[in-house]
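Why do we care about 3D structure at all? Because function follows from shape, and shape follows, mostly, from sequence. That is the central idea of this module. The next example makes it concrete: a single protein chain, its amino acid sequence, and then its structure expressed as tokens.
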Amino acid sequence: MPSVLPDGEPMPEDGALPATALAEAERRPLGFYLHVPYCATRCGYCDFNTYTASELRGSGGVLASRDNYAEQVVEEVRLARKVLGDDPRPVETVFVGGGTPTLLAAADLGRMLGAIREEFGLAEGVEVTTEANPESVDPRYLAELREAGFNRISFGMQSARQHVLKVLDRTHTPGRPEACVAEARAAGFDHVNLDLIYGTPGESDADWRASLEAALGAGPDHVSAYALIVEEGTQLARRIRRGEVPMTDDDVHADRYLIAEEILSAAGFAWYEVSNWATSPAGRCRHNELYWRGADWWGAGPGAHSHVGGVRWWNVKHPGAYAQALGEGRSPGAGRELLTAEERRVERILLELRLVEGCPLELLRPAGAAAAARALEDGLLDPGPYGRGRAVLTLRGRLLADAVVRDLVD
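And the structure:
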């Protein structure tokens, strides 16, 4: 979750939504995202809305304590129930992210999930995920999570090479994420993901191949692989600007992506979103698919974003301000925007084109349709789905996904 919030109109103090937002809500899936903003240390590349203990000290740190954070999230879940009224939908996915959610006690994460279960109910076959730092869990903790109702877990592996982890300021030791997969399986987790990053300064093709092979050797059923984005204001950006480490160029990123596709597909993984691969449809992250398909979700926690029926809003960033708002009986929302039909059309193209199913060609305006025809000729779109009315990226198209999207949205 990026740390910079967008502009927008003020959020009502009671968090009320326009009646149009809940129209035909029963036709859309509903999910929850729970943001845990705490980290033990700050990674050099991270631009997310997260805080270490020292960063909170003296800036609302009492209100923002980890010790009472679960209760604050529970309060926002109760607020969500009031705002959504008699919405009959059970929750289909829950995703706890951060930050490092597993810095909280497993019982606290279970309490947050329990509030959603109590207020909304959980759908049959609900997907319940938490992110985890490999060094912040052990077999007992994982067993407690599973007992609380979590059935999917995502470990931040990033790399199998120590020198790459050092550049990223990651604190876990090589081999620990792989061990975590085995511990999660033993605890009874149905689905396990490993997150990888490619394009770190100083990483070689051989380093990247080693990371992929190590990840696959651990036996997850889902792998996410993201190109490193150097965000302004981060420690890594400052190091690159000072010339301490080199910047990785786009050609290297493309080569690393091709290596990922080669190794993952050979191991039985199939891409279903540009940066995500799974061994089967059941292994896909249904919560993220909910985002990409424009469904409804409530984001609880500092800086968390929500979307319901074309209304998007976001919470205040700082944990202290978040706690204060809830303590005073106010919505922690900082602002919102009501998406127009055109904005929703453009967002559908932006997001759905990244999926293996692609987006309907009928969403395109004439200029976008002409751009799609050119992309087909250039080998960026798959001719089979195109003939059936859908724009689906080829492997080459995935390498140039951002450029293809820009053309298709006019």
